[in-house]
Design goal:
34% of the residues lie in helices and 7% in strands. The chain is an alpha+beta fold and 505 residues long. A hairpin with a 4-residue loop joins strand 7 and strand 8.
């Protein structure tokens, strides 16, 4: 799922569940901020810091705080980051399980049938030790997470440390991803997450046709954003080998997960008829996720103490409005099936526009737009100049604890601690905390998979054809073949970094 669902759909769900505009905005922003809170906001192994380029104002020096009081009495606080961006994933030596497991691929393939939600389906057929970590909707951990949230909602006191809305939004993101990311684990496990790229099918309208995917990590179009088939854990993290198809609400497809195959492995030379395929109908999956989120948000707003199994949509919307809202949600998620959505470069914006249309029609005529700089800009007034000679700024404690940014970090710490404790209790699985790692194990790798020269005839950025006097070069970050103009040499280091990678850093 992306900003179309995590922000706009979550905002719509909150409003339909009875939250006011300001509350719904904070919940929705927190849900999307899970995908924004990356290395730009500092290192998890160091006290919180910002570099100059990460701030909206051109101040000099390093922005950090390392002596701010926290509610637990600690003198230091580190950002509990909730995502790794693409550049970091490419270069990191270590798969950040402390990020991907609790915030994106909540484990859920375990539990006795008598103790599980009747809608929870436990996958079978793989002997890998990490198979219990497979992400599944309605899992014991997902239900426990929501019940913990309902309990927190009942007991919160409204103090400066009140991070209820931020925790609600964060967990709506995690909850939604149990549908979108189901059947993957938040670790680099090839025997579970790998999938066969040569015999997958995509539904176009009512017609199924075969696509010859090569999992080419260097091509940027909609169908080719896959992790390379290399023997590195980061290539098999989550749904990386399937690209972003699990995140597209309108996408219907077949694929062949490694955990379904005999022995948990994939033979690229096998016949398609001998490969077990899994059907994924995202429009149905996303609609289920949306209305389940509405129910949870309704339970929170109305102080219902346990998971809202008995809450119905007619109770929330009124009998006369159920079909109207259901149809509007279906249209926002599915889009117009007569169009060729798989080659439409504007399809993502269309889903955003559809959700904005739904919000205007059914959520009070509101017009909202996600601004990924909003919380960062809000936090700037909490900075004070601690040293005019060095240009170092520190946080003003009284101001900073009231910011959304700080409260989101508290919510992330709360959630991480909950998941860590539950996994230890339920599975005897120890979720590593990045703050305890040796820095030498979490550094950046210079090992990058280079795209073969022979596979490219034009620069993918400027689209100019290569020739005798227009030579090919490799970006040292992503490995793509590009021209010298689109990847100028950095004089101080001698490296070439393409414009695409440089803009994402």
């Amino acid at each position: 799922m992306d900003v179309d669902f995590h922000y706009y759909a979550t905002f719509a769900a909150a409003r339909l569940a009875g939250w006011d505009k300001k509350e719904a905005e904070t919940i929705a922003y927190s849900a999307q901020f899970v995908d924004e809170f990356d290395m730009r906001y500092g290192s998890s192994s160091e006290p919180w810091s910002f570099t100059t380029s990460q701030l909206p104002s051109p101040k000099m020096g390093t922005f950090r705080f390392d002596q701010i009081n926290h509610q637990n009495g600690s003198s230091k606080i580190r950002p509990r980051r909730t995502v790794q961006n693409t550049t970091e994933c490419i270069k990191s030596l270590h798969v950040r399980k402390d990020i991907w497991i609790p915030f994106h691929f909540l484990p859920g393939n375990y539990g006795k049938k008598s103790e599980r939600d009747p809608r929870h389906i436990k996958r079978e057929g793989c002997s890998n030790k990490n198979f219990d970590l497979l992400c599944r909707p309605f899992s014991p951990l997902a239900i426990a997470m929501i019940n913990d949230l309902l309990e927190f909602n009942k007991n919160h006191d409204g103090s400066n440390y009140d991070y209820l809305l931020q925790l609600v939004g964060l967990r709506m993101h995690v909850f939604a991803d149990t549908w979108a990311h189901q059947d993957f684990v938040g670790d680099g496990v090839q025997a579970i997450n790998d999938c066969l790229g040569y015999y997958n099918f995509i539904e176009k309208g009512e017609c199924l046709e075969q696509l010859n995917w090569a999992f080419n990590p260097f091509k940027d179009d909609l169908n080719m954003g896959y992790a390379p088939n290399v023997q590195l854990p980061r290539a098999y993290l989550g749904h990386g080998r399937l690209g972003h198809f699990p995140d597209y609400s309108w996408c219907r497809y077949y694929y062949s997960p490694a955990w379904m195959q005999a022995g948990g492995s994939i033979n690229p030379n096998s016949n398609a008829n001998n490969v077990k395929m899994l059907v994924r109908d995202n429009p149905v999956v996303f609609q289920t996720a949306f209305f389940e989120i509405v129910k949870v948000l309704y339970a929170l707003k109305n102080k219902i103490p346990t998971y809202p199994n008995r809450i119905t949509l007619p109770l929330i919307f009124g009998t006369n409005k159920v079909d109207v809202i259901a149809n509007a949600v279906r249209e926002a998620i599915t889009l117009d099936r007569s169009e060729d959505l798989y080659t439409d470069t504007l399809v993502f914006q269309k889903t955003v526009d559809k959700w904005k249309e739904l919000i205007k029609d059914h959520c009070g005529g509101l017009d909202i737009t996600f601004d990924n700089q909003k919380w960062k800009q809000e936090a700037i007034p909490a900075l004070t100049n601690a040293s005019r000679t060095t240009g170092e700024y520190r946080w003003d404690h009284g101001k900073f604890i009231k910011t959304n940014l700080y409260k989101f970090n508290l919510a992330a710490e709360h959630h991480f601690a909950f998941v860590k404790t539950r996994l230890r209790t339920d599975l005897k699985y120890e979720l590593d905390d990045i703050a305890t790692f040796d820095k030498s194990k979490v550094g950046l790798s210079t090992e990058v998979v280079w795209q073969p020269d022979s596979s490219v005839s034009k620069c993918p950025i400027c689209n100019k054809s290569f020739g005798t006097f227009f030579r090919k070069h490799h970006c040292r970050t992503c490995g793509r073949v590009v021209c010298s103009g689109c990847a100028p040499e950095k004089r101080l280091r001698g490296d070439r970094i393409c414009k695409t990678c440089e803009s994402s850093m």
